Task: structure prediction
Amino acid sequence: MSSYSITAPSSRQKWIAGTIVILYALITITPLVWIIATGFKSGPDSISYPPKVLFQPTLEGYVNLFTTRTRANAEDLAAMPPPETWYEQVVRDNGMVIAGPSRYGERFLNSVIIGFGSTFLSVFLGTLAAYAFSRFKIPLKDDLLFFILSTRMMPPIAVAIPIFLMFRTLGLSDTHLGMILLYTAVNISLAVWLLKGFIDEIPREYEEAALIDGYTRFQAFYKVVLPQAATGIASTAIFCLIFAWNEYAFAVLLTSGTAQTAPPFIPTIIGVGGKDWPAVAAGATLFLLPVMVFTILLRKHLLRGITFGAVRK
Amino acid sequence: MLNTMTERVAKVTPLAAVRRIRGLSDRTIAWIFVAPTIFLLLAINIFPLVWTIRLSLTNYRANQPNRPLQWVGLDNYRRILNDSDIWNTMQVTAHFLIWTIVLQVLIGFTLAWLINRKFKGNDLWTTIIVLPMMLSPAVVGNFWTFFYQPQIGIFNYVVAFFAGADPSSFTMIGSVDLAPWSIVIVDTWMWTPFVMLICLAGLRSIPSYIYEAAAIDRASSWRQFWTITIPMVMPFLMLAVLFRGIENFKMFDLVVQLTGGGPGSTTELTSINLKREAFEKWRTGYASAYAIILFVTVFGLASIYVKALNKVKER
Result:
């Protein structure tokens, strides 16, 4: 099957290379596995010495993540009617009662709204701009493209000062709309650069044929180019979503209540009396898992996405 | 001559064809398509930048908006350049930048080189290695404070296990000596795959016939490595360094969650320092000048670097 080559690595070389890489992969993945595992540990198990690899799994962390609790003394607990749900049982086993829901659900929902809202906007605007940059003669095209890219070089904190003031004046502070617009502005450079690369790869002949067939330029754009660019648009969207999902600096400075996303919230999760690591781990797991899944789906376009289309493989 | 003529005709034909068809002209469409993006960037990037420049010339404080505004000229800039705290911050940032880049390039390149041996299942393992890079730095950084805890943290436990020491005998983020390394370690863990992926693309771009020719000429594999592999991967490697350099110069989320700049100011990178000035001390004018200096620095360094990169590419 494979032809003999004087430069192909020998099987011994492959074996050694494979062992080292797998070893590295196992070490590098350990912190992530540990986060996921901690989410299923009980409070004492999570902070035991030496650290526990094997433990009795429990959903305590997840229950604590979604609830706020207060401590109750044994007599009061005994006097209460029996718990109606399994999660009440979990809380009571630790000598506590549920006081109400936590804010995690809201914060997660904020991340979803702001993430999807800004992704939709940046991909929509980005596709239009990328198509124009790819197909038309635009004066100062290279300068405009570089300008779009350079907006990404600014440290977020540096632009955060005037944005903070601007949002305060316009009443956009701590609103979904404000954050969606902001993340769109940050993501659009990525969207334009990536999508331009994808659209550049679609042969112009397709549209030209459509134009000759009597389509208007606009029809040619959405009936011919868009379907061809679908994969590129989808992977660009995922990159934008991941960025908005992970963003922290703007979120922590510009949101505090109604529009706060999950990244500034998760580190502030505390339990009754001390940091509740299983709950933090549960919150982190739920928040990180979607991105892990997306990464696996995206693996073929990963390189392109992280280098703004500079390296295409 | 004939060639350019035919090219011209070819270029003009579709345009003319379009004009005959009803609908908007290409030019109008181009502007309609590009305008919203440019407008958004002007409103949310350039306008704030101009505003920052204006603020940097004043003594404005955002927490006291009604205080009379005073123009102080270039005073803020002068004070920043003479501020020893800021020079300390710059040193901390330089330490972080240099070490993360050195480690990530060494480990990332080695991994890419090994993966390029094309052992069985290398795709799967590459995907696993890449995972940390895609995750929220704030959330993951927060979790590393847990890993770094003496005794209960796995980092201390594992290191102590191999070094044969007591896990509570050292604390990574609490000690002045180790804290700068604790952020280097986490950043390296997170971003090595980035350098690795770019190097891998570089290695895969080298056509195998070059190696075959070298092998026929009896060039040792050591020589092949230094005269073929390294020079051909260099532009990719430099691109990776550019990205990491810009990103780590801006670094905020991971480190603010990990150490918050402490202990003392041993891990106070410029972004963290800037956030303190702007949003804790509320010296808005001063912080604006600081932001402009940082921006000019990044932009200047990046432009010089890109020039160097292009030279390497031309070779």
